[in-house]
Amino acid sequence: MPSATALPVVRGACGHDCPDTCSWLVEVEDGHAKRLFGDPDHPFTRGTLCAKVNHYLERVYHPDRVLRPLRRVGAKGSGQFEPTTWDDALAEIAARWTEISATSGPEAILPYSSAGNQGMIQMSSLDRRLWAVLGFSQLDRNICGEVAVAGLAATQGSGLGIDPEEIIHSRYIVLWGTNTIVTNLHLWPVIAAARSRGARVVVVDPIRTRTAEQADWHLPLRPASDAMLILGMMHVIIRDGLVDRDYIDRYALGYESLVEHVKSFPPERVAAATDLSATDIELFAREYATTTPALLRPLIGIEHHRNGGMMFRTLACLPILTGAWRHRGGGLARSTGALQYSTLNHAGVVMSQELRSHARTLNMRDLGNDLLSSTLAPPIRSLCVYNCNPAVSVPNQPRIIAGLQRPDLFTVVHDLFITETARFADLVLPATSQIESLDLVPAWGHHYLSLNQPAIPPVGESVSNTEFIRRLAKALGRTEPWLYDSDETLVRTALDSRHPWLAGITFERLLAEGSIRLNHERDWRPFAKGGFPTPSGKAHLWSEELQQMGIDPLPVPGSVRQAQAGELQLISGKTLHYMNTSYSHIARHRHREGQLFIELHPADAAARGIRHGNLVQVANEQGSIVAECRHSERVRPGIAWMPFGSLQDAQGHSRSVNVLTPEEPTDWGGGSGFYDTFIHVTPAL
Ligand SMILES: Nc1nc2c(c(=O)[nH]1)N[C@H]1C(S)=C(S)[C@@H](COP(=O)(O)OP(=O)(O)OC[C@H]3O[C@@H](n4cnc5c(=O)[nH]c(N)nc54)[C@H](O)[C@@H]3O)O[C@H]1N2
Ligand SMILES: Nc1nc2c(c(=O)[nH]1)N[C@H]1C(S)=C(S)[C@@H](COP(=O)(O)OP(=O)(O)OC[C@H]3O[C@@H](n4cnc5c(=O)[nH]c(N)nc54)[C@H](O)[C@@H]3O)O[C@H]1N2
Ligand SMILES: [Mo]
């Protein structure tokens, strides 16, 4: 724990793509960060960080960090680079992009970014302005969250949910497809506090995760059968008269159709389709409907299936039927991201009113296909990657690598490390870490808005994302002054909103306090009295919008692919010591995660003659990978699990599970069915 210290302390906030957005303090001496620790006074951070960010300064000062611009000298993918200067690198980019724009049109250039840094200013600000004014291809960023929001919105108009801190008032907490203890650690104390006040914690997850192990009840259902389970719950809830009829009559549409519809989902049918027992389905439905307040907490698990939209849409029907939204601590809590953004002037930050791009939009999921397409017009001739490591995080890695290998593709990567994507770059440009740049960080897991102040100057020649954009704009000869706005101007623009929840939250206060809770009453129940942001103002148990989209207007199980004979379904999840693809470049974290492995149920392993510790070939039509097999009862028969991120195989090569995942589109929301991956596992020769 921090003690009184003579060193100056700078307030900041973690920028990783994680719901917790921790507030941290950095002790600085002579421009050097000596210590970084969780703010003990922050109500959500509570003075602790995580297995990754506890070692953040190692990342900042790591000897492998890219500190100068690099130009490729070896073959693409060989990872051989020589130092160059910013001036030369920028001149080369400007020349190439000018030539490509002139001959193929600006859409032949694809800026490709995600939430590697999820501070608002470093994630989406000047970059969006510059790409729009240049007419470069736009990117549909849908790998995380979009499907969930689209699914929830079909029922309740948006992804809005309660303040996660309000979960302390819940008495029935369902962690639905989320591994809280690994991925959302700082919510766990809230859940533990609710539990000590009598709450029951249920985990719905095909895998017996660390979180499932800590729960009062784990329901290990068949993957992607969640909508089926919920239809069975609704059958029981309606059959047994456990609905809140008054809430439904006032605030929902389509109840009568739903009543008829769910009659055909009795627990016995649902049991067969979910691999849960009819008794458990009955019990779960009754406990959920009769314990008040009841809270559903999903994050990402169910959106990474092809029926992800429908699963979220169906989940959102539950608190409508029971009127759980009325009760303090009841309803549903997923991301607070859109809510935080709605209080801020992000439109001003990206100048969305002034700069309407008419350029085509490409789906980030289809990167490999698009790079290799012979019909895409114009073809992608240049990629500019930042805040993302698609060679590891995007499905169908073999196709992405083949695309990145194209000799005619001009690839620029701005990152802190030579990532798997950067290995294929023509130019690698050094990026700052979070303690080297200013940002405003809205959280997607709580209601505190944080300012991240730079604690030290940029290390080496690294620059922040916004400075990278300013340098590009200058090299391209742009003269619009708003392409050169400072980070502070951008933060002030974001805060320039009349939203009542931002009242009194100024740049100056953020400078002094670091992180401030949005200005609203604690007991905030968004849908206690309806007010759903749908066209009708009501929740849609039957949805006309879905019907118009050619999708079933009622909640349905959705299109689920089952494993064929001999196949296993492969789920891949977040790891404790990595942040998505990040930290695998640091030995401490790589060693903690260890050798690449796959978990198989002992029965599935025995049927294939595979012993615990054997090397196995994991293959499908996308690709193949060799991993160490672990027998594990964490997985159900028919399911295999691999960690997401880069781990080393027995030969010491970094490998990612996305060698095996297909670009399987989701039903709506534009996302990717990462977990609808089917594999064959055989002993490695
Ligand atoms: N199989 C499988 N695949 C998945 C998932 C899964 O569960 N299973 N999860 C999916 C999900 S939910 C997500 S969100 C994605 C995440 O995928 P990515 O967004 O690609 O992953 P990250 O590792 O979070 O960040 C990418 C890069 O951003 C860089 N970065 C960080 N800060 C900065 C900065 O300030 N400037 C610049 N220029 N770069 C920076 C990091 O060093 C890192 O290399 O992966 C998805 N892919
Ligand atoms: N330590 C650490 N923390 C992280 C990250 C990280 O990489 N490392 N990544 C961050 C990011 S980008 C995100 S989006 C969040 C994600 O946070 P979570 O959503 O908690 O992360 P996942 O591990 O993807 O957990 C999804 C869970 O859904 C389960 N699941 C898979 N299929 C199904 C299904 O069909 N039904 C049900 N009910 N469950 C299913 C999986 O087994 C898994 O346990 O975590 C963030 N926090
Ligand atoms: Mo994510």
Blueprint of the fold:
Layout: E1 9-13, E2 23-29, E3 32-38, H1 56-60, E4 70-72, E5 81-83, H2 86-104, E6 109-113, H3 120-123, H4 126-134, E7 138-140, H5 146-156, E8 172-176, H6 180-183, H7 188-196, E9 200-204, H8 210-214, E10 217-219, H9 226-239, H10 245-251, E11 252-253, H11 255-262, H12 267-274, H13 278-290, E12 294-298, H14 308-315, H15 318-322, E13 331-332, H16 337-343, H17 346-350, E14 361-363, H18 367-372, E15 382-386, H19 390-393, H20 397-404, E16 410-415, E17 427-430, E18 439-442, E19 448-452, H21 465-475, H22 487-495, H23 507-513, E20 515-517, E21 539-540, H24 544-548, E22 568-573, H25 587-593, E23 597-600, H26 602-607, E24 615-619, E25 624-631, E26 639-643, E27 646-648, E28 654-656, E29 677-683
Parallel strand pairs: 6-15, 7-14, 8-9, 8-12, 9-10, 11-21, 12-13, 15-16, 16-17, 22-26, 23-25
Antiparallel strand pairs: 1-2, 2-3, 4-5, 4-17, 18-19, 19-20, 22-29, 23-26, 24-25, 24-29, 27-28
Bound molecules: ligand MGD (2 copies) and molybdenum atom (MO).
Molybdenum atom (MO) binds at residues 17, 144, 300.
Labels describing this entry:
binds ligand MGD, 29 strands, Rossmann fold, 26 helices, globular, 6-stranded mixed beta barrel, binds molybdenum atom, alpha/beta, 6-stranded mixed sheet, 685 residues, N-terminal domain of TfIIb, Dimethylsulfoxide Reductase, domain 2, 4 domains
